[in-house]
Protein backbone atom coordinates (compact mmCIF):
# COMPACT_ATOMS: atom_id res chain seq x y z
CA UNK A 1 0.00 0.00 0.00
CA UNK A 2 1.45 3.38 -0.95
CA UNK A 3 1.95 6.19 1.57
CA UNK A 4 -1.00 8.22 0.33
CA UNK A 5 -3.37 5.29 0.56
CA UNK A 6 -2.07 4.43 4.02
CA UNK A 7 -2.76 7.98 5.16
CA UNK A 8 -6.32 7.83 3.81
CA UNK A 9 -6.97 4.52 5.56
CA UNK A 10 -5.55 5.89 8.81
CA UNK A 11 -7.72 8.99 8.49
CA UNK A 12 -10.79 6.82 7.88
CA UNK A 13 -9.91 4.80 10.98
CA UNK A 14 -9.66 7.95 13.07
CA UNK A 15 -13.20 8.84 12.03
CA UNK A 16 -14.51 5.54 13.37
CA UNK A 17 -16.36 5.66 16.67
CA UNK A 18 -13.70 3.53 18.34
CA UNK A 19 -10.62 5.22 16.79
CA UNK A 20 -7.59 3.43 15.35
CA UNK A 21 -7.68 0.51 17.78
CA UNK A 22 -11.29 -0.34 16.91
CA UNK A 23 -10.41 -0.46 13.19
CA UNK A 24 -7.36 -2.69 13.57
CA UNK A 25 -7.10 -6.44 13.47
CA UNK A 26 -7.32 -6.61 17.28
CA UNK A 27 -10.42 -4.46 17.60
CA UNK A 28 -12.20 -7.13 19.67
CA UNK A 29 -9.36 -7.44 22.19
CA UNK A 30 -9.45 -5.54 25.47
CA UNK A 31 -7.45 -2.29 25.20
CA UNK A 32 -5.47 -0.61 27.95
CA UNK A 33 -7.25 2.16 29.88
CA UNK A 34 -5.73 5.58 30.44
CA UNK A 35 -6.63 6.59 34.00
CA UNK A 36 -5.54 10.21 33.60
CA UNK A 37 -8.21 12.89 34.13
CA UNK A 38 -10.42 13.73 31.13
CA UNK A 39 -10.71 17.43 30.32
CA UNK A 40 -13.94 19.15 29.26
CA UNK A 41 -12.32 19.81 25.89
CA UNK A 42 -11.68 16.09 25.42
CA UNK A 43 -15.27 15.31 26.38
CA UNK A 44 -16.49 17.74 23.71
CA UNK A 45 -14.23 16.12 21.11
CA UNK A 46 -15.62 12.70 22.05
CA UNK A 47 -19.14 14.05 21.74
CA UNK A 48 -18.38 15.43 18.27
CA UNK A 49 -16.89 12.11 17.17
CA UNK A 50 -19.95 10.26 18.40
CA UNK A 51 -22.17 11.84 15.74
CA UNK A 52 -19.75 11.12 12.91
CA UNK A 53 -19.89 8.21 10.49
CA UNK A 54 -20.02 5.05 12.63
CA UNK A 55 -17.72 2.11 12.20
CA UNK A 56 -18.87 -0.56 9.75
CA UNK A 57 -17.05 -3.87 9.77
CA UNK A 58 -14.72 -4.49 6.87
CA UNK A 59 -14.23 -1.03 5.42
CA UNK A 60 -10.62 -0.73 6.55
CA UNK A 61 -9.38 -4.25 5.90
CA UNK A 62 -9.13 -4.27 2.10
CA UNK A 63 -6.30 -6.13 0.39
CA UNK A 64 -6.02 -3.55 -2.40
CA UNK A 65 -3.49 -3.41 -5.20
CA UNK A 66 -2.58 -0.72 -7.69
CA UNK A 67 -3.80 -0.96 -11.29
CA UNK A 68 -0.72 0.02 -13.32
CA UNK A 69 -1.19 2.96 -15.71
CA UNK A 70 -4.65 3.70 -14.32
CA UNK A 71 -5.50 7.30 -13.36
CA UNK A 72 -4.94 8.18 -9.73
CA UNK A 73 -7.97 7.78 -7.50
CA UNK A 74 -9.85 11.05 -6.94
CA UNK A 75 -10.18 11.82 -3.23
CA UNK A 76 -11.73 15.31 -3.34
CA UNK A 77 -13.97 16.97 -5.93
CA UNK A 78 -16.85 19.46 -5.41
CA UNK A 79 -20.08 17.46 -5.75
CA UNK A 80 -23.65 18.73 -5.47
CA UNK A 81 -25.81 16.18 -3.66
CA UNK A 82 -29.58 16.58 -4.07
CA UNK A 83 -32.51 14.59 -2.75
CA UNK A 84 -34.73 14.63 -5.81
CA UNK A 85 -37.46 12.58 -4.15
CA UNK A 86 -37.85 9.95 -1.45
CA UNK A 87 -36.71 7.46 -4.09
CA UNK A 88 -33.90 9.33 -5.83
CA UNK A 89 -30.60 11.07 -5.06
CA UNK A 90 -28.52 12.87 -7.70
CA UNK A 91 -24.82 13.70 -7.57
CA UNK A 92 -23.68 16.46 -9.96
CA UNK A 93 -20.28 18.02 -10.68
CA UNK A 94 -18.77 20.45 -13.18
CA UNK A 95 -16.03 18.95 -15.36
CA UNK A 96 -14.01 20.09 -18.36
CA UNK A 97 -16.53 18.27 -20.53
CA UNK A 98 -19.62 19.83 -18.90
CA UNK A 99 -22.05 19.05 -16.10
CA UNK A 100 -22.00 15.38 -15.09
CA UNK A 101 -24.85 13.75 -13.11
CA UNK A 102 -25.22 10.25 -11.69
CA UNK A 103 -28.27 9.00 -9.76
CA UNK A 104 -28.96 6.47 -7.03
CA UNK A 105 -32.58 5.33 -7.19
CA UNK A 106 -34.89 3.05 -5.23
CA UNK A 107 -36.07 -0.19 -6.81
CA UNK A 108 -39.42 -1.84 -6.08
CA UNK A 109 -37.93 -4.08 -3.38
CA UNK A 110 -36.52 -1.09 -1.45
CA UNK A 111 -32.82 -1.16 -2.41
CA UNK A 112 -31.16 1.99 -3.74
CA UNK A 113 -29.09 1.11 -6.83
CA UNK A 114 -26.92 3.10 -9.22
CA UNK A 115 -29.13 4.02 -12.13
CA UNK A 116 -28.28 6.73 -14.70
CA UNK A 117 -25.18 8.70 -15.73
CA UNK A 118 -25.50 11.72 -18.03
CA UNK A 119 -23.49 14.70 -19.26
CA UNK A 120 -24.77 18.10 -20.37
CA UNK A 121 -21.89 19.42 -22.48
CA UNK A 122 -20.73 23.00 -23.02
CA UNK A 123 -23.21 23.34 -25.90
CA UNK A 124 -26.08 22.25 -23.64
CA UNK A 125 -26.40 18.90 -25.44
CA UNK A 126 -27.29 15.93 -23.24
CA UNK A 127 -25.28 12.71 -23.57
CA UNK A 128 -26.92 9.73 -21.90
CA UNK A 129 -24.15 7.26 -21.15
CA UNK A 130 -26.39 5.07 -18.99
CA UNK A 131 -30.16 5.51 -18.95
CA UNK A 132 -31.06 2.89 -16.33
CA UNK A 133 -32.92 -0.42 -16.66
CA UNK A 134 -29.99 -2.69 -15.85
CA UNK A 135 -27.64 -3.18 -12.91
CA UNK A 136 -24.12 -2.11 -11.88
CA UNK A 137 -23.74 -3.79 -8.50
CA UNK A 138 -23.19 -7.46 -7.69
CA UNK A 139 -25.50 -10.19 -9.02
CA UNK A 140 -25.33 -13.82 -7.89
CA UNK A 141 -26.65 -17.03 -9.37
CA UNK A 142 -27.66 -18.62 -6.10
CA UNK A 143 -28.84 -22.15 -5.33
CA UNK A 144 -31.65 -22.10 -2.77
CA UNK A 145 -32.09 -24.96 -0.26
CA UNK A 146 -34.86 -26.25 -2.54
CA UNK A 147 -32.28 -26.73 -5.31
CA UNK A 148 -33.73 -23.93 -7.39
CA UNK A 149 -31.17 -21.54 -8.94
CA UNK A 150 -32.13 -17.90 -9.27
CA UNK A 151 -30.57 -14.46 -9.54
CA UNK A 152 -30.06 -12.54 -6.30
CA UNK A 153 -28.97 -8.94 -5.86
CA UNK A 154 -28.49 -6.15 -8.37
CA UNK A 155 -31.62 -5.42 -10.37
CA UNK A 156 -33.16 -8.84 -9.66
CA UNK A 157 -34.61 -8.35 -6.18
CA UNK A 158 -34.24 -10.96 -3.46
CA UNK A 159 -32.52 -8.36 -1.30
CA UNK A 160 -34.08 -6.78 1.78
CA UNK A 161 -33.33 -3.12 2.47
CA UNK A 162 -32.27 -2.21 6.01
CA UNK A 163 -30.98 1.39 5.99
CA UNK A 164 -29.48 4.21 3.93
CA UNK A 165 -27.35 7.02 5.43
CA UNK A 166 -25.40 9.92 3.92
CA UNK A 167 -22.12 11.35 5.26
CA UNK A 168 -19.66 14.06 4.32
CA UNK A 169 -16.59 12.09 3.18
CA UNK A 170 -14.16 14.72 4.47
CA UNK A 171 -15.23 14.81 8.10
CA UNK A 172 -17.71 11.96 8.56
CA UNK A 173 -20.56 14.27 9.54
CA UNK A 174 -24.08 13.02 8.74
CA UNK A 175 -26.01 14.66 5.89
CA UNK A 176 -29.78 14.84 6.21
CA UNK A 177 -31.76 16.27 3.32
CA UNK A 178 -35.44 16.88 2.76
CA UNK A 179 -36.90 16.38 -0.71
CA UNK A 180 -35.68 19.21 -2.94
CA UNK A 181 -32.76 20.14 -0.69
CA UNK A 182 -29.11 19.93 -1.78
CA UNK A 183 -25.63 20.40 -0.37
CA UNK A 184 -22.17 20.68 -1.95
CA UNK A 185 -19.37 18.55 -0.48
CA UNK A 186 -15.92 17.47 -1.69
CA UNK A 187 -16.89 13.86 -1.29
CA UNK A 188 -19.98 11.89 -0.30
CA UNK A 189 -20.36 8.53 1.43
CA UNK A 190 -23.70 6.75 1.08
CA UNK A 191 -23.87 3.70 3.33
CA UNK A 192 -26.57 1.14 2.58
CA UNK A 193 -27.20 -2.00 4.61
CA UNK A 194 -29.19 -5.00 3.43
CA UNK A 195 -29.77 -8.71 3.72
CA UNK A 196 -29.65 -10.92 0.68
CA UNK A 197 -32.17 -13.73 0.40
CA UNK A 198 -32.52 -17.09 -1.28
CA UNK A 199 -36.28 -16.85 -1.68
CA UNK A 200 -37.05 -19.51 -4.31
CA UNK A 201 -38.14 -18.56 -7.81
CA UNK A 202 -41.74 -19.74 -7.64
CA UNK A 203 -42.82 -18.65 -11.13
CA UNK A 204 -39.80 -20.10 -12.95
CA UNK A 205 -38.52 -16.95 -14.63
CA UNK A 206 -35.10 -17.12 -12.86
CA UNK A 207 -35.70 -13.71 -11.29
CA UNK A 208 -36.22 -13.55 -7.56
CA UNK A 209 -39.68 -13.35 -6.06
CA UNK A 210 -38.79 -10.96 -3.25
CA UNK A 211 -39.37 -7.94 -5.50
CA UNK A 212 -41.62 -5.79 -3.35
CA UNK A 213 -40.41 -4.12 -0.15
CA UNK A 214 -43.77 -4.80 1.49
CA UNK A 215 -43.28 -8.56 1.19
CA UNK A 216 -42.28 -10.44 4.31
CA UNK A 217 -39.30 -12.71 4.76
CA UNK A 218 -37.83 -14.68 7.64
CA UNK A 219 -34.27 -14.98 8.89
CA UNK A 220 -34.29 -18.48 7.44
CA UNK A 221 -34.37 -16.79 4.00
CA UNK A 222 -31.22 -14.72 4.68
CA UNK A 223 -27.88 -16.13 3.52
CA UNK A 224 -25.71 -13.00 3.76
CA UNK A 225 -25.58 -9.55 5.35
CA UNK A 226 -24.21 -6.75 3.20
CA UNK A 227 -22.94 -3.23 3.74
CA UNK A 228 -22.33 -1.05 0.70
CA UNK A 229 -20.32 2.14 0.91
CA UNK A 230 -20.65 4.31 -2.18
CA UNK A 231 -18.13 7.17 -2.37
CA UNK A 232 -19.05 9.88 -4.87
CA UNK A 233 -16.26 12.32 -5.72
CA UNK A 234 -17.17 14.27 -8.85
CA UNK A 235 -16.59 12.12 -11.95
CA UNK A 236 -15.63 9.06 -9.86
CA UNK A 237 -17.81 6.49 -8.11
CA UNK A 238 -16.26 3.95 -5.75
CA UNK A 239 -18.22 1.07 -4.28
CA UNK A 240 -16.96 -0.91 -1.30
CA UNK A 241 -19.23 -3.89 -0.67
CA UNK A 242 -18.77 -6.00 2.46
CA UNK A 243 -20.37 -9.45 2.51
CA UNK A 244 -20.79 -11.57 5.64
CA UNK A 245 -22.29 -15.00 4.99
CA UNK A 246 -24.55 -16.35 7.71
CA UNK A 247 -25.37 -19.66 5.98
CA UNK A 248 -23.55 -22.06 3.71
CA UNK A 249 -24.48 -20.93 0.19
CA UNK A 250 -23.85 -22.24 -3.32
CA UNK A 251 -23.22 -19.83 -6.21
CA UNK A 252 -22.92 -20.52 -9.90
CA UNK A 253 -21.16 -18.08 -12.23
CA UNK A 254 -21.88 -14.63 -10.72
CA UNK A 255 -20.73 -11.03 -10.99
CA UNK A 256 -19.05 -8.92 -8.33
CA UNK A 257 -19.68 -5.72 -10.35
CA UNK A 258 -20.89 -4.62 -13.78
CA UNK A 259 -21.19 -1.56 -16.02
CA UNK A 260 -23.82 -0.96 -18.72
CA UNK A 261 -22.97 1.62 -21.40
CA UNK A 262 -24.72 3.02 -24.47
CA UNK A 263 -22.92 1.64 -27.54
CA UNK A 264 -22.35 5.15 -28.86
CA UNK A 265 -20.05 5.78 -25.90
CA UNK A 266 -18.75 2.25 -25.33
CA UNK A 267 -18.29 0.62 -28.73
CA UNK A 268 -14.61 -0.13 -28.07
CA UNK A 269 -13.29 -1.90 -25.01
CA UNK A 270 -9.66 -2.08 -23.87
CA UNK A 271 -8.87 -4.93 -21.47
CA UNK A 272 -5.83 -4.61 -19.14
CA UNK A 273 -4.37 -7.27 -16.86
CA UNK A 274 -3.12 -6.70 -13.31
CA UNK A 275 0.37 -5.80 -14.59
CA UNK A 276 -1.08 -3.05 -16.77
CA UNK A 277 -0.60 -4.93 -20.06
CA UNK A 278 -3.17 -4.33 -22.81
CA UNK A 279 -4.73 -7.72 -23.49
CA UNK A 280 -7.03 -6.71 -26.34
CA UNK A 281 -9.04 -3.89 -27.88
CA UNK A 282 -12.47 -5.28 -28.65
CA UNK A 283 -14.74 -3.67 -31.22
CA UNK A 284 -18.40 -4.49 -30.63
CA UNK A 285 -21.34 -4.18 -33.01
CA UNK A 286 -22.70 -0.70 -33.66
CA UNK A 287 -26.17 -2.18 -33.51
CA UNK A 288 -26.52 -5.34 -31.48
CA UNK A 289 -29.15 -8.06 -31.65
CA UNK A 290 -32.56 -7.21 -30.26
CA UNK A 291 -33.04 -10.71 -28.81
CA UNK A 292 -30.05 -10.44 -26.41
CA UNK A 293 -28.18 -13.16 -28.29
CA UNK A 294 -25.14 -10.99 -29.04
CA UNK A 295 -21.59 -12.20 -28.51
CA UNK A 296 -20.03 -12.34 -25.06
CA UNK A 297 -16.33 -11.43 -25.38
CA UNK A 298 -15.18 -13.22 -22.22
CA UNK A 299 -12.16 -14.98 -20.77
CA UNK A 300 -9.99 -11.90 -20.21
CA UNK A 301 -8.07 -11.82 -16.89
CA UNK A 302 -8.59 -8.06 -16.70
CA UNK A 303 -8.73 -5.91 -13.58
CA UNK A 304 -9.12 -2.71 -15.60
CA UNK A 305 -11.34 -1.85 -18.57
CA UNK A 306 -11.43 1.36 -20.64
CA UNK A 307 -14.48 2.14 -22.80
CA UNK A 308 -15.09 4.74 -25.51
CA UNK A 309 -17.33 5.11 -28.55
CA UNK A 310 -17.84 6.68 -31.95
CA UNK A 311 -20.27 9.41 -30.83
CA UNK A 312 -17.42 11.25 -29.08
CA UNK A 313 -14.26 9.28 -28.20
CA UNK A 314 -13.19 12.05 -25.80
CA UNK A 315 -15.76 10.68 -23.33
CA UNK A 316 -14.21 7.60 -21.74
CA UNK A 317 -14.92 5.33 -18.79
CA UNK A 318 -12.11 3.77 -16.77
CA UNK A 319 -13.25 0.80 -14.66
CA UNK A 320 -11.11 -0.84 -12.00
CA UNK A 321 -11.36 -3.79 -9.67
CA UNK A 322 -8.99 -3.14 -6.74
CA UNK A 323 -9.68 -6.43 -4.92
CA UNK A 324 -8.99 -9.22 -7.45
CA UNK A 325 -9.11 -12.02 -4.86
CA UNK A 326 -12.46 -11.15 -3.26
CA UNK A 327 -14.03 -9.69 -6.42
CA UNK A 328 -12.76 -12.06 -9.08
CA UNK A 329 -11.56 -15.13 -7.22
CA UNK A 330 -8.22 -14.42 -8.91
CA UNK A 331 -9.79 -15.44 -12.23
CA UNK A 332 -10.42 -19.04 -11.21
CA UNK A 333 -13.38 -19.40 -13.58
CA UNK A 334 -13.23 -19.47 -17.38
CA UNK A 335 -15.55 -16.51 -17.95
CA UNK A 336 -13.33 -13.95 -16.14
CA UNK A 337 -13.94 -10.37 -17.40
CA UNK A 338 -16.36 -9.90 -20.29
CA UNK A 339 -17.99 -7.32 -22.53
CA UNK A 340 -21.37 -8.43 -23.87
CA UNK A 341 -23.12 -7.11 -26.99
CA UNK A 342 -26.25 -7.04 -24.86
CA UNK A 343 -28.89 -5.61 -27.19
CA UNK A 344 -29.34 -3.12 -30.04
CA UNK A 345 -27.99 -0.11 -28.17
CA UNK A 346 -26.21 -1.30 -24.99
CA UNK A 347 -22.97 -3.05 -24.11
CA UNK A 348 -22.25 -4.40 -20.65
CA UNK A 349 -19.08 -5.18 -18.72
CA UNK A 350 -19.05 -8.13 -16.29
CA UNK A 351 -16.45 -8.91 -13.62
CA UNK A 352 -17.14 -12.54 -12.76
CA UNK A 353 -16.57 -15.10 -10.02
CA UNK A 354 -17.55 -18.70 -9.10
CA UNK A 355 -18.10 -21.86 -11.10
CA UNK A 356 -19.45 -21.81 -14.64
CA UNK A 357 -20.35 -25.52 -14.91
CA UNK A 358 -20.72 -26.38 -11.23
CA UNK A 359 -21.41 -24.15 -8.20
CA UNK A 360 -18.92 -23.10 -5.56
CA UNK A 361 -19.85 -23.23 -1.86
CA UNK A 362 -19.34 -20.24 0.41
CA UNK A 363 -19.38 -21.32 4.05
CA UNK A 364 -21.13 -19.49 6.87
CA UNK A 365 -18.85 -16.95 8.54
CA UNK A 366 -17.01 -16.09 5.33
CA UNK A 367 -16.43 -12.39 4.65
CA UNK A 368 -15.62 -10.73 1.34
CA UNK A 369 -14.59 -7.09 0.89
CA UNK A 370 -14.78 -5.82 -2.68
CA UNK A 371 -13.79 -2.47 -4.17
CA UNK A 372 -14.87 -1.20 -7.59
CA UNK A 373 -14.15 2.18 -9.23
CA UNK A 374 -16.10 3.67 -12.13
CA UNK A 375 -14.38 6.83 -13.46
CA UNK A 376 -15.51 9.23 -16.22
CA UNK A 377 -12.57 10.74 -18.10
CA UNK A 378 -12.50 13.56 -20.65
CA UNK A 379 -9.60 13.07 -23.08
CA UNK A 380 -9.48 16.19 -25.31
CA UNK A 381 -7.20 14.75 -28.02
CA UNK A 382 -8.82 11.31 -28.27
CA UNK A 383 -9.90 10.12 -31.72
CA UNK A 384 -12.06 7.22 -32.75
CA UNK A 385 -10.33 4.18 -34.29
CA UNK A 386 -13.27 4.04 -36.68
CA UNK A 387 -12.27 4.91 -40.28
CA UNK A 388 -13.72 8.11 -41.67
CA UNK A 389 -17.08 7.78 -43.43
CA UNK A 390 -16.40 8.08 -47.18
CA UNK A 391 -18.05 10.86 -49.08
CA UNK A 392 -20.46 8.96 -51.31
CA UNK A 393 -22.54 10.83 -53.88
CA UNK A 394 -25.80 9.48 -52.50
CA UNK A 395 -27.90 11.68 -54.74
CA UNK A 396 -26.46 9.94 -57.80
CA UNK A 397 -26.71 6.42 -56.41
CA UNK A 398 -29.01 4.06 -58.27
CA UNK A 399 -28.66 0.27 -58.43
CA UNK A 400 -28.34 -1.31 -61.84
CA UNK A 401 -31.53 -2.95 -63.02
CA UNK A 402 -35.26 -2.31 -63.18
CA UNK A 403 -37.29 -0.68 -60.43
CA UNK A 404 -39.47 -3.50 -59.07
CA UNK A 405 -41.14 -2.05 -55.97
CA UNK A 406 -43.20 0.81 -57.41
CA UNK A 407 -46.75 0.52 -56.09
CA UNK A 408 -46.01 -2.72 -54.25
CA UNK A 409 -47.40 -3.40 -50.76
CA UNK A 410 -45.23 -3.29 -47.66
CA UNK A 411 -45.45 -3.75 -43.90
CA UNK A 412 -43.91 -1.73 -41.08
CA UNK A 413 -42.57 -3.06 -37.78
CA UNK A 414 -44.82 -2.80 -34.75
CA UNK A 415 -48.45 -2.35 -35.71
CA UNK A 416 -47.54 -0.27 -38.74
CA UNK A 417 -48.67 3.11 -37.44
CA UNK A 418 -46.46 6.02 -38.45
CA UNK A 419 -44.99 8.55 -36.03
CA UNK A 420 -47.60 11.24 -35.50
CA UNK A 421 -49.46 12.14 -38.71
CA UNK A 422 -46.53 11.48 -41.03
CA UNK A 423 -47.72 8.47 -42.98
CA UNK A 424 -46.25 8.74 -46.47
CA UNK A 425 -46.79 5.96 -48.97
CA UNK A 426 -43.27 4.63 -49.23
CA UNK A 427 -43.60 2.94 -52.65
CA UNK A 428 -45.59 5.55 -54.56
CA UNK A 429 -42.59 7.02 -56.39
CA UNK A 430 -42.90 10.44 -54.73
CA UNK A 431 -39.92 12.04 -53.01
CA UNK A 432 -39.70 15.44 -51.31
CA UNK A 433 -37.02 18.07 -51.93
CA UNK A 434 -36.94 19.00 -48.24
CA UNK A 435 -38.51 18.03 -44.92
CA UNK A 436 -41.83 19.55 -43.96
CA UNK A 437 -44.21 18.08 -41.44
CA UNK A 438 -46.80 16.67 -43.83
CA UNK A 439 -47.84 13.33 -45.22
CA UNK A 440 -45.00 13.26 -47.73
CA UNK A 441 -42.82 11.87 -44.93
CA UNK A 442 -42.89 8.76 -42.77
CA UNK A 443 -41.28 8.77 -39.33
CA UNK A 444 -39.81 6.01 -37.19
CA UNK A 445 -39.98 7.02 -33.54
CA UNK A 446 -37.63 5.48 -30.98
CA UNK A 447 -39.02 4.24 -27.69
CA UNK A 448 -42.15 2.40 -26.66
CA UNK A 449 -44.02 3.42 -29.76
CA UNK A 450 -45.90 1.61 -32.49
CA UNK A 451 -43.32 1.26 -35.25
CA UNK A 452 -39.93 0.41 -33.70
CA UNK A 453 -38.71 -2.59 -31.77
CA UNK A 454 -35.75 -1.98 -29.44
CA UNK A 455 -34.88 1.17 -31.39
CA UNK A 456 -35.02 -0.48 -34.82
CA UNK A 457 -37.68 0.31 -37.42
CA UNK A 458 -38.26 -2.17 -40.25
CA UNK A 459 -39.98 -2.07 -43.64
CA UNK A 460 -40.69 -5.29 -45.57
CA UNK A 461 -41.60 -4.85 -49.25
CA UNK A 462 -43.55 -7.63 -50.99
CA UNK A 463 -42.58 -7.84 -54.68
CA UNK A 464 -45.42 -10.28 -55.35
CA UNK A 465 -43.17 -13.04 -56.65
CA UNK A 466 -39.59 -14.18 -56.31
CA UNK A 467 -37.15 -12.10 -58.37
CA UNK A 468 -33.41 -11.88 -59.01
CA UNK A 469 -32.43 -8.84 -56.94
CA UNK A 470 -29.82 -6.23 -57.81
CA UNK A 471 -30.14 -3.50 -55.18
CA UNK A 472 -32.10 -1.40 -52.72
CA UNK A 473 -32.20 2.28 -51.80
CA UNK A 474 -34.02 4.67 -49.49
CA UNK A 475 -34.64 8.43 -49.48
CA UNK A 476 -33.97 9.75 -45.97
CA UNK A 477 -33.48 13.02 -44.11
CA UNK A 478 -31.10 14.13 -41.39
CA UNK A 479 -29.89 17.32 -39.78
CA UNK A 480 -32.74 19.65 -40.69
CA UNK A 481 -34.59 19.84 -37.42
CA UNK A 482 -34.21 18.85 -33.77
CA UNK A 483 -34.45 15.12 -33.16
CA UNK A 484 -34.12 14.18 -36.85
CA UNK A 485 -30.81 12.55 -37.64
CA UNK A 486 -29.25 9.98 -39.88
CA UNK A 487 -29.89 6.43 -38.69
CA UNK A 488 -27.17 4.75 -36.63
CA UNK A 489 -27.19 1.95 -39.17
CA UNK A 490 -29.21 0.81 -42.19
CA UNK A 491 -29.21 -2.80 -43.42
CA UNK A 492 -31.06 -4.73 -46.10
CA UNK A 493 -31.91 -8.43 -46.37
CA UNK A 494 -34.24 -10.59 -48.42
CA UNK A 495 -36.36 -13.74 -48.13
CA UNK A 496 -38.51 -16.05 -50.20
CA UNK A 497 -40.93 -16.93 -47.39
CA UNK A 498 -40.89 -13.74 -45.23
CA UNK A 499 -39.45 -15.82 -42.39
CA UNK A 500 -35.89 -16.83 -43.22
CA UNK A 501 -33.97 -13.74 -44.33
CA UNK A 502 -30.50 -13.56 -45.85
CA UNK A 503 -27.51 -12.17 -44.00
CA UNK A 504 -27.95 -8.42 -43.75
CA UNK A 505 -26.12 -6.12 -46.16
CA UNK A 506 -25.05 -2.78 -44.70
CA UNK A 507 -26.33 0.31 -46.49
CA UNK A 508 -23.90 3.27 -46.18
CA UNK A 509 -25.01 6.26 -44.10
CA UNK A 510 -23.34 9.66 -44.44
CA UNK A 511 -23.89 11.58 -41.19
CA UNK A 512 -22.12 14.63 -42.63
CA UNK A 513 -24.90 15.28 -45.12
CA UNK A 514 -27.37 17.92 -44.01
CA UNK A 515 -30.71 17.51 -45.74
CA UNK A 516 -32.35 14.76 -47.77
CA UNK A 517 -30.54 12.20 -49.88
CA UNK A 518 -30.70 8.72 -51.38
CA UNK A 519 -28.67 5.90 -49.95
CA UNK A 520 -28.51 2.33 -51.17
CA UNK A 521 -26.55 -0.87 -51.68
CA UNK A 522 -26.28 -3.79 -54.05
CA UNK A 523 -28.18 -7.00 -53.35
CA UNK A 524 -27.38 -10.36 -54.89
CA UNK A 525 -29.80 -13.28 -54.70
CA UNK A 526 -33.40 -14.31 -55.21
CA UNK A 527 -36.25 -13.16 -53.03
CA UNK A 528 -39.84 -11.98 -52.89
CA UNK A 529 -39.57 -10.00 -49.66
CA UNK A 530 -36.95 -7.28 -49.07
CA UNK A 531 -36.48 -5.93 -45.55
CA UNK A 532 -34.79 -2.61 -44.72
CA UNK A 533 -33.88 -2.01 -41.06
CA UNK A 534 -33.22 1.46 -39.64
CA UNK A 535 -31.45 1.60 -36.27
CA UNK A 536 -32.18 4.95 -34.62
CA UNK A 537 -29.64 7.18 -32.90
CA UNK A 538 -31.99 9.99 -31.90
CA UNK A 539 -35.74 10.29 -31.47
CA UNK A 540 -36.76 10.17 -35.14
CA UNK A 541 -35.68 8.86 -38.52
CA UNK A 542 -37.66 10.23 -41.47
CA UNK A 543 -37.97 8.79 -44.98
CA UNK A 544 -40.43 9.13 -47.82
CA UNK A 545 -39.50 6.40 -50.32
CA UNK A 546 -37.91 2.95 -50.48
CA UNK A 547 -37.04 1.14 -53.70
CA UNK A 548 -36.01 -2.37 -54.73
CA UNK A 549 -34.31 -3.12 -58.06
CA UNK A 550 -34.10 -6.41 -59.98
CA UNK A 551 -31.87 -7.75 -62.70
Mean pLDDT: 84
Summed up, the helix count is: 5
- Which percent bin holds the helix content? under 10%
Q: How is the biggest beta sheet arranged?
A: 10 strands, antiparallel
Shape: globular
How many beta-strand elements?
Answer: 31
Portion of residues in beta strands equals 35-45%
Please give the alpha-carbon distance between the first and last residues: 71 Å
Low-confidence stretches: 1-47, 387-394
- Overall structural class, as computed from helix and strand content, comes to mainly beta
Strand order of the largest sheet: 9-8-11-12-13-23-19-18-15-16
Cα Rg = 28 Å
Topology of helices and strands:
Elements: H1 3-14, H2 19-23, H3 40-50, E1 79-85, E2 88-94, E3 98-106, E4 112-121, E5 126-130, E6 139-143, E7 149-152, E8 159-168, E9 174-175, E10 182-185, E11 188-197, E12 222-233, E13 236-245, E14 249-262, H4 263-266, E15 268-272, E16 278-283, E17 296-300, E18 304-308, E19 315-321, H5 324-328, E20 337-341, E21 346-353, E22 360-362, E23 367-378, E24 402-403, E25 410-412, E26 442-445, E27 456-478, E28 489-495, E29 505-507, E30 515-535, E31 540-550
Would you summarize the structure shown here?
Helices cover 7% and strands 43% of the residues. The protein is mainly beta.
Keywords:
single chain; 551 residues; mainly beta; ten-stranded antiparallel sheet; eight-stranded antiparallel sheet; globular; disordered N terminus
Amino acid sequence: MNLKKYFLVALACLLCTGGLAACGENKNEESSVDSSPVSEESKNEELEDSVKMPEYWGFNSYENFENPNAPEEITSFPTLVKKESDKKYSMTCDTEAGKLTVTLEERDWGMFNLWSWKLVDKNNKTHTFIGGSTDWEYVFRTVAPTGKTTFTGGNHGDEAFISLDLYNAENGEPIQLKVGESVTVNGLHIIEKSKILWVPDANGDSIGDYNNKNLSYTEDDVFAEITRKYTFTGPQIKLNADFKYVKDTKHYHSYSAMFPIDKKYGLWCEMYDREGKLLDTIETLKVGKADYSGKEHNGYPATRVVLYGHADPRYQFDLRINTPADSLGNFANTYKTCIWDMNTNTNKIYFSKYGVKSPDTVTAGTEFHTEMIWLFKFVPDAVSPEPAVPEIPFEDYKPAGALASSGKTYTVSGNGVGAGAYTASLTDGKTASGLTYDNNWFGFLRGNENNTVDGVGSIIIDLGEEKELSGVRAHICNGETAGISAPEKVTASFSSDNVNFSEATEVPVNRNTDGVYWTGAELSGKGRYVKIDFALTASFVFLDEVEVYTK
